[in-house]
What we know:
The protein has a single domain (71-275), classed as MetI-like (MetI-like fold, Orthogonal Bundle). Helices cover 82% and strands 0% of the residues. The protein is built from 14 helices and no strands. The chain has helices at residues 14-20, 23-59, 71-84, 86-118, 120-125, 127-134, 138-149, 153-178, 182-190, 194-205, 207-231, 237-246, 250-278, 280-286. α7 (138-149) packs across α8 and α8 (153-178) packs antiparallel against α11 (207-231). The termini are far apart.
Amino acid sequence: MSDISYKIPLAPGAGERASAWRPGWLGRAFSQVCAHAPTVALGLAVPLAVLALWSYAVQQQWFSPLILPAPSLVWDTLSDLVATGELQSELLVSFGRVLAGLAVGGGLGFLFGIAFGLWRPLDIYVSPTVRAICLVPSLGWLPFFMLLFGIGEALKIILIAKTCFLPLMVSSYEGLRNRPRKFDEVAAVLELPWATRVRRVILPSILPSILTGLRLALSKGWKALILVEMISSASGIGYLMMWGRKAFQLDVVFSTIVVVGLVGWLLDWALLKGQHRVTGWSFKTAG
């Protein structure tokens, strides 16, 4: 007796939905998660060890609870700050300041680095002075800047911009000086105009170096932001940290420390992923 098979008609679009959720797709997703599981586990090993040591130190009363609060208390305080929206509002203020400082200082650093790399007289006569000024720590400029700009928003943005200036200037300059000369040879053979050569050849060739400098500038600018907000500010995540210290609420201080470290890491991770996406060819060449 022959087998008889029946075909049940599917609703419109059901075939696409079924193919989108077929076991093969889920299997690939699960395999990717499993492939990254060892890396994630290794990355969490140190934070979990620190958390365990912290909890043990609190249980053994190595320090006074007023100095070292329990992790559970810090978690409750952090949850309250998020629930009330205070943490989000302070982070938005800090993000605005660091982005403004990065745009001003990083943009000027990029222009100065390009100028020093393209024009030799500027590199010889002007670059040493600019580098010497930038190598003075931001705290060294703070009293002078306070006399010039007061203690308002301008002071914070200028100090962050000063911090972000040098990394992008150095990365742009070194990218120009160390880029492969074959790009210039190709541009000379094609007889490209100078402006076209800069836009089509020079800038793309130094893009990996510029993005690396951008990551470094953002990292330094984020740390400078926290410092300047702790010194003279009435808002921002650094101010929240300093307020917790003055009120002797160490749970607030530890909560902001965790947030500052986590946000700084996330910003650097996002820039690194963007750098891999934009200039993935440079990583393949390096490998």
